[in-house]
Amino acid sequence: MSWLFACTAFLLFLVAPADAASPLVRARLEPASAKVMVGEPARIVLDVLTPTWFLAPPVFPTIEVTDALVVFEERGININESIGGAPYAGIQREYLVYPMRPGRIEVPPIDVTIVFAIDAKPSTPTRISTRPLSFLAELPAGAGGLDRFVAARRLLVRQALEPQAKGLVVGDALRRTLTIDAEEAFAMMLPQITVAPIAGIAIYA
């Protein structure tokens, strides 16, 4: 009986370190002030950590944020740190969230699926979630009365006519091409081009 008790206690001692610490995921916003301009990104930094090691790459989801465009950064970095005196290893990834309107932008919890080592064997696919985050999107001073604000390093609007608007007769066609170029902006952030009616001309977009 004493020998059996001693063996059981020894086995429990071996298992305890693996069970005592669990994988975790942390999320934080950058900038830490949680304020950004409309059209500029708020950066969500995710740290996914395990007290053992990953046996498959963590699966990061596509997330949707109301009134915002979300871009997942393809590159990640490996991280190591000590938590509560225990060593952890993991990976850091980032999402860029571009607000499309001013106001409070709510980011839902992000579910990351991992497979990690338990006693050198793979765990079942495990889903761990971040806490929800939010930040405030603002317009720059003086832009509050605009119909549409576009954040860009450079913005150009160009027009081209084909053929030249000379010598046209009734029934001829004139092609007018309007182009908006915005440096460091996404196409979906640009306003829709509309053309006002012109007397005597039929317009086909």
Task: Describe the protein.
- This protein is mainly beta and 205 residues long.
- Helix content is 9%, strand content 46%.
- It is built from 1 helix and 14 strands.
- The chain has one helix at residues 2-20; strands spanning 24-30, 35-37, 42-50, 54-59, 68-72, 77-83, 86-99, 103-107, 111-118, 121-122, 126-129, 133-138, 154-162, 175-183.
- A hairpin with a 2-residue loop joins strand 9 (111-118) and strand 10 (121-122).
- The longest helix is centred in the first third of the chain and has 19 residues, at 2-20.
- It is elongated.
- 16% of the residues are buried.
Termini separation (Å)?
A: 89 Å
Return Rg in Å. Answer: 28 Å
Tell me the quaternary state: single chain
Question: Per DSSP, what share of the residues sits in E-state strands of 2 or more residues?
Answer: over 45%
Can you summarize the main beta sheet? 5 strands, antiparallel
Count every beta strand, where a strand is a DSSP E run of 2 or more residues.
Answer: 14
Helix share of residues? under 10%
Structural class: mainly beta
Q: Please tell me the overall pLDDT.
A: 85
Structure annotation, total helices = 1
Low-confidence stretches: 1-20
Listing every helix as H and every strand as E from the N terminus to the C terminus, the arrangement reads HEEEEEEEEEEEEEE
Shape: elongated
